[in-house]
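Entry 14. Ran structure prediction on the chain below.
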Amino acid sequence: MKTKQIDAVGSAAVSGEVDKLRTAVMNMDSLSQQGCDEIAAIAGLALTCFETTEGYRRLDDVAIALGAIRRKANDTMDCINGEAEGVGCNYVDKAERGRWAAMRAAHEQGIAA
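Output, structure tokens:
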């Protein structure tokens, strides 16, 4: 009898974890679709500017659009990472972390500005 109760508790815990992961994956999918759709739309508009003579007079607008693309890409990446981190499944770039540690050490030693 105790074995069945333990199995039921274990199954409920696993089911809860699966539900958390499913929700996180669905959120990440939504975030990536929305972010990438916005990036594609802005990029398309920026490219359209180069198809007319008038577009070359609006290079500041294109530069602003490129800045918006960069910000949207970073925001989307941060949101997706936050979702993955929330369920303990975020990617960690060990080489990047090593570079950060080296930079901090250089600052602490007065080597880097």
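The chain has a mean pLDDT of 90. Will compare against last week's run tomorrow.
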